[in-house]
Task: inverse folding
């Protein structure tokens, strides 16, 4: 299929360029959508009017999702390069079995991710665990959605930044790609204003007037040299007031990250990114996030700010000192639309099509598992104890049995219906309790008197029962080496031992006293017997 526009660029004198496009879309070749406000992220700008990549083209590396609008922060990170190279044709090597880690080397707010596998059967057999500084982080309202036969999205609400994702399950060995959403750039072509606008005549014979307007900070160009493309916004210098730049969304957005690009073509601190503040406010005018930046050693060329998702209507960036100009070469604000129930899309322009009027995923419009109207498996019901696209997987043997004695779980994810048996965790109950814990939901801690294992990654107690595996420390004893309880038992047992000893000693002394008496009695008795015998023999 060919793109339904004709576009191009004509330049004069090496710097004055005119971009043209056909009337079919009214957009330049690198833009699409209403008011041409979305940037084409397909290879060689090969997008159709909806931003979809045409013919054999795919998303530019580092972008993915609907119309390639979502920043892939996993790109070229992680232990297995084949998973994060942006190429669905390259898959994990044979050495990877049931677990792999994406260490992203930066903290970020997780919203959703996409996994692509080589075999459809294993699409849903992948679980994700999220960590921050090696500590597991709670994932609330986890949702799985099917994109196609080999692609699945995982959505999750995590309040704090994470830096690592651990993927596990039978599907890991069939993984081909992992994409992690950093959100989409909501600032592009948004409404902006600034306190004043700097302008000057261009160094050409045409003597054109060049204005560094506020809109140039949201034009999608990240060139940080003021006169190389003239794509920065810059205010005038004012001796009496701080200069500002402000963006207003057409409707509230969920925001979690900002990238602020300053100038790099001047060493003068006055023109660099420094001594500025950012404030984000909601629809009622309440400040939901603020940050002040004052460099101490060196200037950051790109300032990155992240926070938990907040509803934002307006963003203000202003200089903290005056007289001074404010120069911003690009401002990117990442997040997602906030749509009313039943709507989705870049501008919430589409209506969900899920059963029972269930809301769909805002980014894709896909219905969560078990609520899709149009699905090849909607009428499929797996037998109790099985799950998966073709019901070929068995629920974990560590799922708690239901009322009829079956290890039951949800289809198609394998999440246990009634929790895990003692000693197991995760939604599918396939992982043992973390080292040092045991019992139901792994809420118990191994006894403090259990002998510690010398081998690394080895627990001192049994993951289900808590029994100390290597014995007890000091005077503690018993299955759990519970020193407080067992010592009292030992003291009681010790008192009984003393009583027994005293009894034995008493008996021994008694025997020693009785022996001479018995001996004497025995010696006297034969004498009488002989006398009586003699008397009986007399005539």
Result:
């Amino acid at each position: 299929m060919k793109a339904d526009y004709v576009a191009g660029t004509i330049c004069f004198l090496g710097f004055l360029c005119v971009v043209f496009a056909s009337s079919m879309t009214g957009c330049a070749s690198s833009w699409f959508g209403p008011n041409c406000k979305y940037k084409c992220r397909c290879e060689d700008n090969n997008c159709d009017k909806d931003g979809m990549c045409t013919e054999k083209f795919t998303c530019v590396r580092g972008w993915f999702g609907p119309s390639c609008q979502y920043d892939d922060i996993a790109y070229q990170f992680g232990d297995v390069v084949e998973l994060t190279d942006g190429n669905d044709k390259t898959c994990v090597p044979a050495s990877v079995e049931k677990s792999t880690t994406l260490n992203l080397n930066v903290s970020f707010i997780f919203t959703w991710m996409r996994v692509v596998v080589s075999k459809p059967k294993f699409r849903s057999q992948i679980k994700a665990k999220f960590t921050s500084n090696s500590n597991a982080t709670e994932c609330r309202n986890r949702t799985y959605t099917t994109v196609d036969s080999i692609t699945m999205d995982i959505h999750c609400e995590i309040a704090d930044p994470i830096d690592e994702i651990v993927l596990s399950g039978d599907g890991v060995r069939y993984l081909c790609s992992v994409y992690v959403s950093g959100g989409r750039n909501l600032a592009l072509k948004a409404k902006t204003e600034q306190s004043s606008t700097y302008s000057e005549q261009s160094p050409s014979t045409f003597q054109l007037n060049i204005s560094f307007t506020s809109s140039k900070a949201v034009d999608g160009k990240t060139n940080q040299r003021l006169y190389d493309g003239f794509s920065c916004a810059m205010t005038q210098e004012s001796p009496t007031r701080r200069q500002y730049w402000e963006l207003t969304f057409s409707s509230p957005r969920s925001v979690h990250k900002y990238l602020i690009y300053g100038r790099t073509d001047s060493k003068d601190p006055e023109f660099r990114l420094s001594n500025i503040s950012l404030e984000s406010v909601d629809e009622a005018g309440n400040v939901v996030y603020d940050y002040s930046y004052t460099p101490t050693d060196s200037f950051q060329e790109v300032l990155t700010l992240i926070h938990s998702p907040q509803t934002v209507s307006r963003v203000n960036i202003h200089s903290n000192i005056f007289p001074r100009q404010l120069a911003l070469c690009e401002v990117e604000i990442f997040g997602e639309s906030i749509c009313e129930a039943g709507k989705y899309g870049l501008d919430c322009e589409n209506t969900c099509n899920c059963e029972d009027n269930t809301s769909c995923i805002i980014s894709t419009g896909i219905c969560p598992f078990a609520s899709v109207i149009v699905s090849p498996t909607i009428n499929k019901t797996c037998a109790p104890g099985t799950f998966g696209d073709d019901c070929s997987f068995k629920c974990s043997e560590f799922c708690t049995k239901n009322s009829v004695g079956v290890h039951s779980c949800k289809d198609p994810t394998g999440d246990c219906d009634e929790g895990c048996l003692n000693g197991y965790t995760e939604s599918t109950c396939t992982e043992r309790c973390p080292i040092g814990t045991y019992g139901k939901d792994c809420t118990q801690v191994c006894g403090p008197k259990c002998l510690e294992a010398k081998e690394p990654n080895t627990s001192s107690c049994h993951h289900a029962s808590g029994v100390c595996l290597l014995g007890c420390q000091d005077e503690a004893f018993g299955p759990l080496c519970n020193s407080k309880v067992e010592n009292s038992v030992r003291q009681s047992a010790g008192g009984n031992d003393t009583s027994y000893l005293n009894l034995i000693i008493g008996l021994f002394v008694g025997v020693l006293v009785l022996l001479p008496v018995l001996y004497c009695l025995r010696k006297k008795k034969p004498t009488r017997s002989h006398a009586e015998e003699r008397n009986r023999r007399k005539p």
